[in-house]
Amino acid sequence: MLESLQTGLYGLTSGISYLFTSGGPNVIMLLIAAILLYLGVKKDVEPLLLVPIGFGCFLVNIPLSDLMEPGGLLKILYDMGISNEVFPLLIFVGIGAMIDFGSLLENPKMLLFGAAGQFGIFFTLMLALALGFPQLEAVSIAVIGACDGPTSIYVASQYAPQLLAPISVAAYSYMALVPIIQPPIMRVLTTPKERVIKMAPIKRSVSAQTKLLFPIVVTLVTGLLAPKGLPLMGTIMLGNFMRESGVVARLTKASENEIANIVTLFLGLAIGGTMEGHAFLKPQTLAIFGMGFVAICMDTVAGVVFGKIVCALTGGKVNPLIGAAGISAFPMAARVVQAQGQLYDKKNHLLMHAAGVNTGGQIGSVVAAAVMLSVLKGMGLI
Amino acid sequence: MDNAKWTFGLTMMIVGMGGTFLTLWILGLVMDALKNVFPLAAKTPSPEKK
């Protein structure tokens, strides 16, 4: 009887005793979970993601909860949509359904800004290799520079699942920090004269047929050039095709609302579930956060420098600030450009141009990841 | 960084960045072509009321 009581009591106290014996990393992660929840709830930093990620992190670090063991809730969610990359792709359908590529189609040359804005990916790849990360891990870390959460998760879950948690948290955190990271770089790299350049207003010139055919053409061209990235581009363009066709309004609305919301919840919880203290708290996590920061900075540097080159080539018709919008953080980066432009001239409206560059950055980030995967495939590494 | 990693990094940098620029440049050309094939119909002036 006494023995039975003792074992029963042990069951009740084992979690607490674990916390005080070998639960140090869990305690730290519980604090990190609290910070993530605080940032999401009080500071409005990507709340749709940081709240489920923070809560998943909170759940998995309560000792002996077994939520990430086979059969555990978070493990089921992880297997359901992260390990097989379904969740990020479903989110892409929603993103495609939300984005209007009209401003990009008005001036397709803006796509080149979207290419320049991916430089951070390749710079960070070199950095990660120099720091000793293996090739596929380095590629997965570098994709943080795409400034695109779903793409980062898609690549990391395939080629570096052990780094998924820090990569995805870094990707989403830095996306949210774009309004803080970009302006100082934009100011340092441009002259006061360049910042006040006014760009010609955009004339409406895109027909409904062009907007409808755009997703099909983009899917075909990128699929032929970089087939390994077809799931990424295919899903984003599926969402956009549904939007532009106008005949499947229910599916479009479901993609951008219900499906995107449910998947975001599951995705966030499952990512939070990978943040178990003993696995997460490693020096390489800190290194990944550092490299993610470098990646976003280098994206901005390359975008603005490219803007300066285009400005010089066009005889001062392009404001170099719009180059900073060539990343995937949509529409945040475009708003940053507009705010910076108006800081120096209240009558300078760069938003439409920046929105075109920003949607170009959205496509550019997916293309860059697709190209990388196809090059890896060509090299026989995947 | 050892030689193999250096080669890998440079290859990714040149082919990856170059491939991204090339793909997006081609996409830009195709989008321009699409706009030319399917131009926005000019608004016909509404007939004046008599």
Structural account:
The complex is a heterodimer of chains A (382) and B (50). Chain A is mainly alpha-helical. Chain A has helices at 2-21, 24-41, 47-60, 73-81, 86-98, 102-106, 111-116, 119-130, 135-142, 149-159, 164-176, 178-189, 192-195, 208-225, 230-245, 249-273, 277-280, 283-313, 332-344, 351-378. Chain A contains 20 helices and no strands. In chain A, helix 5 (86-98) runs parallel beside helix 15 (230-245) and helix 11 (164-176) crosses helix 18 (283-313). The N and C termini of chain A lie far apart (59 Å). Chain B has 50 residues and is mostly helical. Chain B has one domain. Helix content of chain B is 70%, strand content 0%. Chain B has one helix spanning 3-37. Chain B is rod-shaped.
Structural descriptors:
heterodimer; A: 0% strand; globular; B: 50 residues; mainly alpha; 0% strand
Quick summary of this structure?
With 382 residues, chain A is mainly alpha-helical. Chain A has helices spanning 2-21, 24-41, 47-60, 73-81, 86-98, 102-106, 111-116, 119-130, 135-142, 149-159, 164-176, 178-189, 192-195, 208-225, 230-245, 249-273, 277-280, 283-313, 332-344, 351-378. Chain A has one domain (15-378).
